[in-house]
Design a protein that fits this description.
317 residues, alpha/beta, 9-stranded mixed β-sheet, 9 helices, 9 strands, 32% helix, 13% strand, globular
Length: 317
C-alpha cells in the first residue's frame, strides 16, 4: 500500500504546529484537530512521561459524553480526531466502536491513533482498521528488552511483542486492503543511545509507511531533567520541523479533551492545571473561546507567559 503525499503523517503534524495567521488571535477558529482521551490509564510507567507520577485520577471516558461531544465537534468543523491523549487507548474495550462512530456516523475525514504498541495485537488492530481508522502510529522509544524494562517498568520480553505487533499490523493492513496509514516515531537521544535506537528502528522501518524522530519533551516541566536528561523547551513538534516554544501551537490549533470532560490547553496536562472549560456543562466552541483560554492565548501572543499556567513549563525557565 502506498500512502499519497497528502496523507503523510509528518505533513499533517507540521500543518498543526505551524499556527496559520488566522489562528494567531485570542479567539481562533475551531481547531481542525482534536485529541480525545478515551482512557487516562496506561500500561507503561516511563520516566520521561509524567503519567507515571499519577498526578490525577485516571479512568475511562463515559460513552454517552463521548458520543455527544464528538458529534458536536464535527458539526463545529473539527476534521481530524485523535482517539488518544495521555492514556493508552488500547486499554479501552470500546475503542473500535468509538472509531466507527466518529468515522461512519459523524463523518470525520481523518481519525488517528497513537499507541505504545504492547496491546496493539493483530485482532485488535484489525477491528480498528475495519471500523475506519485512517492512521495508526506506534511510539517506539526503546532499543532492546533491557532498556525497555528499565524505562517502562514492564517485562523486557514485551519489547519483542511490540516489534511483532508492528510487523503484524502491516500484514493485517495489506492483506485486508485497509486504507490505514502505519507510522512510527522515536525519541532521538544522543551518543550511544542514538546508535542503539537507530539499529532498533531499522528493524521496524520496513513495516511502516513513515518513521520520524521526536525531541525529548519536558512535559510541561513535570519531567524536566529526569534521569539526567535534557528535554527541549515546550513542545516544538517533530525534530525536523521544530517550532518556537512561544507562542505554543497547542494553545491555538489543536484541542485536547480529558477523560472527565475538560478542555485542556496543553499536550501534557497530567495534573489538570490547564483546564480551559468543562465540556459537560458547556459547548466545545464556548470552551474553546472561554475567557480563560483567551487570556492564555493573549499572553502567548505577547511572548510573556509569566503568571499563567504555562509559566512552569521548561520552555520559560
Amino acid at each position: 500500500m502506498t500512502i499519497v503525499a497528502a496523507n503523510r503523517i509528518t505533513e499533517r503534524i507540521d500543518a498543526i504546529t505551524r499556527i496559520p495567521s488566522e489562528y494567531r488571535c485570542a479567539t481562533p477558529p475551531c481547531p481542525k484537530s482534536v485529541k480525545i482521551e478515551l482512557t487516562a490509564r496506561c500500561d507503561f510507567n516511563c520516566f520521561f512521561c509524567a503519567t507515571a507520577k499519577r498526578l490525577r485520577h485516571k479512568a475511562d471516558m463515559d460513552e454517552g459524553f463521548f458520543r455527544r461531544i464528538v458529534r458536536e465537534m464535527r458539526d463545529a468543523g473539527v476534521q481530524e480526531l485523535g482517539m488518544f491523549y495521555l492514556g493508552e487507548s488500547f486499554l479501552c474495550p470500546w475503542l473500535p466502536e468509538a472509531i466507527e462512530y466518529a468515522k461512519k456516523d459523524c463523518g470525520y475525514p481523518y481519525v488517528f491513533l497513537t499507541t505504545n504498541g504492547r496491546l496493539a495485537t493483530p485482532d485488535r488492530v484489525e477491528s480498528c482498521m475495519l471500523a475506519g481508522l485512517d492512521s495508526l502510529k506506534f511510539s517506539f522509544n526503546n532499543a532492546n528488552p533491557e532498556q525497555f524494562e528499565a524505562v517502562t517498568q514492564v517485562k523486557g520480553k514485551d519489547f519483542f511483542r511490540i516489534v511483532e505487533n508492528i510487523r503484524e499490523a502491516r500484514r493485517v493492513r495489506d492483506e485486508g486492503g485497509y486504507q490505514c496509514g502505519l507510522y512510527a516515531s522515536s525519541i532521538r537521544y544522543d551518543g550511544e543511545q542514538l546508535a542503539l535506537m537507530e539499529e532498533a528502528v531499522r528493524e521496524i522501518v520496513p513495516f511502516v509507511d513513515e518513521h520520524y524522530w521526536l525531541p525529548l519533551y519536558g512535559q510541561a516541566g513535570l519531567t524536566s531533567g529526569a534521569n539526567g536528561t535534557r528535554p527541549v523547551a515546550g513542545n516544538p513538534g517533530r525534530l525536523e520541523a521544530m517550532r518556537e516554544p512561544i507562542p505554543c501551537w497547542a494553545v491555538f490549533t489543536e484541542g485536547h479533551i480529558t477523560f472527565d470532560g475538560r478542555l485542556s490547553a496543553c499536550c501534557f496536562d497530567h495534573d489538570g492545571r490547564f483546564n480551559m472549560g468543562n465540556l459537560k456543562t458547556s459547548t466545545f466552541v464556548d470552551a474553546w473561546h472561554s475567557l480563560t483560554f483567551q487570556n492564555l492565548r493573549g499572553a502567548h501572543l505577547t511572548g510573556n507567559v509569566c503568571g499563567t499556567v504555562c509559566q512552569n513549563c521548561i520552555a520559560y525557565q
